[in-house]
Each structure stands twice: as C-alpha cells, then as structure tokens.
Design brief:
CATH architecture of one domain: Orthogonal Bundle
Shape: globular
Order of helices and strands: HHHHHHHHHH
Helix content: 55-70%
Number of helices: 10
Number of strands: 0
Strand content: under 5%
Distance between the termini: 24 Å
CATH superfamily of one domain: Dioxygenase LigAB, LigA subunit
Largest sheet: none
C-alpha cells in the first residue's frame, strides 16, 4: 500500500507520524530529546510546568505530560522514540506505553506480545 493510500485509510486507532505530526509535536519531541541529559531530567522533575513552558509546549501537550498519558502525547504530535526518554524518567518503558495504548495491564501486554512471536 502506498504512503498516499495510508494517508486516506489509516490503521484504525493509530496516529500516523508524518510531516504534519512532526510539526505539531516539534516542541514536545525537542523537550523529550533533552532528557538525554541527567541535569535536564533533574530540572524537569524540580518543576515540570516550568520545564514544559521553557520548550513552548501547548496546553494539550502540557496536560498529556502532566498525566503521563502517552496516547495523548502521541495525539499531540509526540514520537514514541522521543517519548521513551520521557517515560524513562519515571522508570517506565515502551511496554508500559503499549499497555496504556491497548488498555491492558503491562503483564497482559507482555503476554500478548509474546503470543505473537
């Protein structure tokens, strides 16, 4: 299936990360990339709101970050590779994100993934 066909017929329940999403999520993804630095992670934990404002996150993005809602972060233009850096601050990983996205517990999600092998 071509990229153009995907744009018109997306997979139900998914967010296509394309150029439009990249532009929408630029500030969010830039902030998450900053978490490569331990000092930035510490600054974020001291005052999460101020750190979000420093990067210019919009209200939708700030609320998603505040609630640690990865699905909302994806909808707000977040890229899972950058969001994984955010999750790591709270000792969460991509499996935690997958569980959140599917409405499963982490253990249920792990069993599901292993059953697909």
């Amino acid at each position: 299936m071509s990229h153009a066909a995907l744009a018109w017929n997306p997979i139900p329940g998914t967010y296509i990360f394309d150029g439009e999403a990249a532009m929408k999520g630029y500030a969010l993804n830039k902030m998450c990339y900053s978490f490569n630095s331990a000092s930035n992670r510490e600054e974020f934990l001291r005052d999460q709101y101020a750190y979000c404002m420093k990067f210019g996150l919009n209200e939708e993005q700030r609320r998603a970050i505040e609630k640690k809602n990865i699905l909302a972060c994806l909808h707000a233009g977040g890229n899972i590779y950058y969001l994984a850096k955010f999750l790591g601050i709270f000792h969460l990983n991509v499996q935690d994100a997958g569980a959140q996205q599917t409405g499963m517990t982490v253990e249920q999600f792990k069993r599901f993934i292993n059953s697909q092998a």
